């Protein structure tokens, strides 16, 4: 029996070491990815803040050099004061020596005493000369250090001025491009306005002089009754005749407008605020206005007007040009508007 239990233990599989190895590998992979992410963020942050750090470092160096220059100037001034004092003392000693020499020349009896004083004053003068020479040497060294500091400050200021000049040049180029773009846009608008004026002038000449066809601002307005039957969106015979004239004017104008002007003729359909009645083809004024604008566009395309130069839009009753509910007001709001514009 003991032998059977031992055999069963030998047949059992221990999965724990494999699980530990897999878990360790997963943790190492996660740590590697986190390390790569942190390094990437660090490099990106350094790239972004690099320029600001350079400018801040330059400004800090200028401030430090300015402080050093101020300290050097203060030390130089102290040495200058010391030198002036030594020179004054040296001048007094020279005067005293001259006086004693004169006394020595005039009184031989006191020659030994005078000689002693002269020797002492000579030694003092020599000592003061040595101190003055050391002070002059220190002043010369300070002057050299000040010159070096000024050169460093000038170089840093030159670098800052070059950076500012580069930024100013970039800003000037951007402003110049903006001005050029505005001028180009203004020229395009002026050209389009000129062709729009010509277009309206030709339409005024070729279309019938009727009260229900008029110009409102930058749009040419047809009353719906000129083109469509009541509640319908199919051009009637009179409407097709008017659209034939319109198509001829568009084709003539299209040959004159330069290719670089991306113009379109927008056809807008509008209705009055009266709800549709009965069981017609259209559920509301949105559908009716859109269908009428589309019908005009399709007819113009059938007469040769390029489809890429036409746009149809329906506005329902929500863009009235007259307020009120009188028959005349409602008739004014039922309309088709044509507008020559840029895409």
TrEMBL record:
Organism domain of life: Bacteria
Keywords for this protein: Coiled coil, Membrane, Transmembrane, Transmembrane helix
GO-annotated cellular components: membrane
Ranges for domain OmpA-like: 216-343
Ranges in a coiled coil: 132-166
UniProt xrefs under SUPFAM superfamilies: OmpA-like (SSF103088)
The keyword Calcium belongs to this UniProt entry's keyword annotation: no
Stretches that traverse the bilayer: 20-44
InterPro entries for this protein: Bact_OuterMem_StrucFunc, OmpA-like, OmpA-like_sf
Matching Gene3D superfamilies: 1.10.287.1490, OmpA-like domain
Protein name: OmpA-like domain-containing protein
Source organism per UniProt: Agrobacterium albertimagni AOL15
């Amino acid at each position: 029996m003991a032998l059977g239990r031992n055999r069963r233990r030998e047949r059992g599989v221990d999965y724990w070491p494999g699980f530990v190895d897999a878990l360790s590998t997963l943790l190492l992979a996660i740590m590697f990815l986190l390390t790569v992410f942190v390094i990437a963020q660090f490099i990106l942050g350094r790239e972004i803040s690099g320029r600001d750090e350079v400018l801040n470092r330059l400004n800090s160096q200028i401030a430090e050099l300015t402080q050093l220059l101020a300290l050097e100037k203060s030390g130089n001034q102290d040495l200058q004061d010391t030198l002036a004092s030594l020179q004054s003392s040296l001048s007094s000693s020279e005067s005293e020596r001259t006086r004693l020499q004169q006394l020595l020349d005039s009184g031989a009896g006191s020659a030994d005493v005078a000689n002693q004083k002269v020797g002492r004053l000579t030694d003092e003068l020599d000592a003061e000369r040595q101190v003055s020479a050391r002070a002059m040497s220190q002043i010369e060294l300070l002057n050299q250090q000040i010159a070096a500091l000024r050169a460093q400050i000038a170089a840093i200021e030159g670098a800052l001025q070059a950076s500012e000049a580069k930024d100013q040049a970039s800003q000037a180029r951007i402003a110049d491009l903006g001005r050029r773009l505005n001028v180009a846009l203004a020229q395009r608008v002026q050209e389009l306005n000129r062709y729009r004026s010509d277009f309206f002038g030709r339409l005024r000449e070729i279309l019938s002089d009727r009260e229900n066809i008029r110009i409102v601002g930058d749009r040419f307005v047809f009353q719906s009754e000129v083109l469509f039957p009541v509640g319908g969106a199919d051009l009637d015979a009179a409407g097709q005749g008017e659209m034939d004239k319109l198509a001829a004017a568009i084709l003539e104008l299209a040959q004159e407008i330069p290719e670089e002007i991306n113009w379109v003729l927008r056809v807008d359909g509008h209705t009055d605020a009266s709800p549709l009645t009965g069981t017609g083809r259209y559920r509301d004024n949105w559908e009716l206005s859109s269908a009428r604008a589309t019908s005009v566009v399709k007819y113009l395309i059938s007469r040769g007007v390029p489809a890429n130069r036409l746009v149809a839009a329906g506005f329902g009753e929500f863009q009235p040009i007259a307020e009120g509910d009188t028959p005349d007001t409602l008739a004014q709001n039922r309309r088709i508007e044509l507008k020559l514009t840029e895409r």
